[in-house]
Amino acid sequence: MNIRDFEYLVSLAEHKHFRKAAEACFVSQPTLSGQIRKLEDELGTALLERSSRKVLFTDAGLLLVEQAKKILVDIKQFTDMASAQGDSMQGPVHIGFIPTVGPYLMPRIVPKIKHDFPDLEVFLYEAQTHQLVAQLEEGKLDCLILAAVKETEQFNELAIYDEPLVLAVPENHKWSGLSQLDMQKLEGNTVLFLGDGHCLRDQALGFCFASGAVEDQRFKATSLETLRNMVSAGSGVTLLPELAVPQEKSKDGVCYIEAVNPKPFRKLVLAYRPGSPFKPRFEALAKYIANSLSDSE
Question: What is the pLDDT of residue 297?
Fold first, then answer.
């Protein structure tokens, strides 16, 4: 058996489809199918239920898939250790980010990183927190840039920025002329939030519920831009992260107000696997991003 056999096995487990698994591994379906059967013969155990039209793994197959994932992570760490012997800011780096961070942070920092670190190849991937955590665990990503949550506590975290959450209200709202708003004023008011799966939802809910606000159960947004448009249409008020807020106090039918007492915020971090040989690179990246945000304020 070899490394490719493990990759074929894990790909088949992820895609549950021989053709899709083969495409993901850039091989033909007969090649992947043949190698899986060869692996079964070599191990002396069935990995798949052959009687089913679906891709179903046996109990032994499921156990070996998990072990194969661990082996591939170890192999990646082994090769990463070799790569890390040179300049820490050269070579590929695969960064995952959440939808409420990426569109607003990446355009600010990626051009600067490319200019200041031309030998660093940056690959970017957007997904929700639970998906990114799984990909980091499996070695598919090198690090994550996201809001610190319980799911990321298993990783090493480097602080980047404590990002304030700003109150967004319709331009004809009674609060639109205010520069600040006490969070306690939200008591009894209905607030718009993102849908399940977004960590910002839980963070904003925590601050708003503590102030006595109520969630609008009729609508849950899939993105910050949808939230912003709903506010512009007069459907309610919401909290938006500062990076997503324009410099103007009022724009496109939305007024932005600093929230105080308490000042809601989320903690942006760079998370990476403990034991990663690229710790110096991640420390440099986190510091660079933090300084870039500080300079732009």
Answer: 60
